[in-house]
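User: Show me a protein chain along with its predicted structure.
Assistant: Here is one chain, sequence first, then structure tokens.
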Amino acid sequence: MTIILRTKILNISKLSTRTVLRSVAFAVAVASASPAVLAQAAMAASADVVTMAGAQTADLFVKSITADLINTVRGDKAIQSGDLRKAIAVIEAKVLPYVNFQRMTASAVGRNWRQATPDQQKRLQDEFRTLLTYTYAGAVAQIKDQVVEFKPVRSRPEDTEVIVRSLVRGKGGDPVQIDYRVEKAGEGWKIYDVNVLGAWLVETYRSSFAQEVSASGVDGLIGKLAERNKQLATKKPAG
């Protein structure tokens, strides 16, 4: 959705983008929900303790981190009942270490990223990370009995960037296409973008961010993100 008025910048977390983000968070969380995938991912995660992370393929990387997350969420009654603080703690431990927020933020901000000072870049990254964390945490309680189908990965062993494609199926609804862009990071992998139903997360934000920077500068964008995060922080937890 193209945002016409700059005053609508906060809608990045309230309207269409919120739907995309919650779908992203929800899909990542359920990506290993089927018993077969859970078993495969669990074995991969166990093997990863002994072998180097670089030996793990991109698709098994996605499956293993989501298997760990879903097991934690399903076994935590507080999260299932809507405890946002508990959900955030789990997200920070189980998901955020595997996301390249610097690359994701720089891509979302676009050409304006190079014009920002190092301090502004850090503040942008911190606020964007916080926004995605709140959105992700608000979605994990929705994990129920969905299953996922991972499509064969088309890549070569030497590839350093790979797209992992999947299809999430739930009862009484259409399947949701979820794709992950992952990059080789040292001996392991990191996620730097997610596609929900054809909409890449970074692209969803880019036009809104560009309009806000054009109207109010980089500090204006930082202020809008900080304002939204403050609203999310004071929101009364469900349950």
